[in-house]
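@channel sequence for tomorrow's demo:
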Amino acid sequence: MAQQEVWEKEYETGTLVSKDDQPQAFMKRYIRRFTFMSGKEPSEWRVLDLGCGTGRNSNHLASLGADVVGVELAKNALDLAQKRADEMGVKVNYIHQSIGEPLPLEDNSFDMILDITSSNSLNEAEREIYIKEAARLLKPGGAFLVRALSLDNDKNAKNLLKLYPGPEKYTYIMPKTGIVERIFLRQDFRKMYAEHFKVKKLQQFATYTPFEGQPYKRFFWFGWFTKLEE
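structure tokens (generated this afternoon):
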């Protein structure tokens, strides 16, 4: 089954993804931090939300006055994002396509680009395009915020790699969903972005991810990147 079908099924069943309409707490913290660091209010930002899902971050940023573009592969998730935007009375330019393909957007046009555990389902060829596109689209002085799955210290991730190996290195297929996920060692995560970005911040954190009502401890990387040319 193609990953678009897999993700549309996932948004129907909600095995892994949240249908919460509010942004994550860490996202609110980084919005405040970027406001301080950039010296610009959200109403002055243009934001690209890669893999925007049901629009929890896109719609929130739009409610703060930001000019937001959201890109999502799953059509049913995008429809819900648009419905929520309409209900909130905010405007977001939602685009239905993979983030592993070239995007119909202008160079150096975004102050902030978000990838909140979205590129983990790309294959290596798609991931190369995604990184090049993010570098092309981010303004000098902008922030590329990435959350990705960590292999370091994660016993559950190591177990998934062993029991449900995926088609490429460091990938597994989530049981009962068909979702392919890529996980990263610290050095691999840094290296992947190093050709086009420099690291402003890189940290590992743990949280509990629900699966069929059972919480599992998972580790993530959070990277804050800027354009390498700066």
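heads up for whoever presents: The radius of gyration is 17 Å.
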